[in-house]
Amino acid sequence: MDSVTQTIVNYIEQTDVTNREDLLAVARIAFLDYLASLVPAESECAVQDLARFIGPKSDKALYYGFASHYLDFDDAQANLAGHFSTVLYSALLAVLEPMDTWHEFFRAYIIGAELEGIIGSLINPAHRTQGWHSTGTVGVIGAAAAIGALRGLHGESL
Q: CA-based angle 127:130:134, to the nearest 5?
């Protein structure tokens, strides 16, 4: 494993939200923001067209991501210069299992959001001024980290 990947894995494995009700509260507010962006968009023609195109059992993350960002009401983060909740919650909802707890769900979100913010602070503003949008570039790294954290992956598996 290269040193950058090892640094990211270490960060994910060492993140502890025990006694961090402040972070969990922010994650819950971000989820409400996410839902407030997703639900109204579901009546939009383009969102309904996508749902018909991909089918009911296909790419849930694509559908949730498109719909939650469609009206552009979703949150943004300055370091990332992008919209992290639309990527993270869409990915997490797509893999959510009935046995997953809300605490695990929000912990995974926090890990993904914090990682995206760290990476965003390292690459921006150059990343943005070169024409890249961090939602699509850094978002996938954050989503992979969040899903790995939710699934309890460690080391090479993560």
A: 40
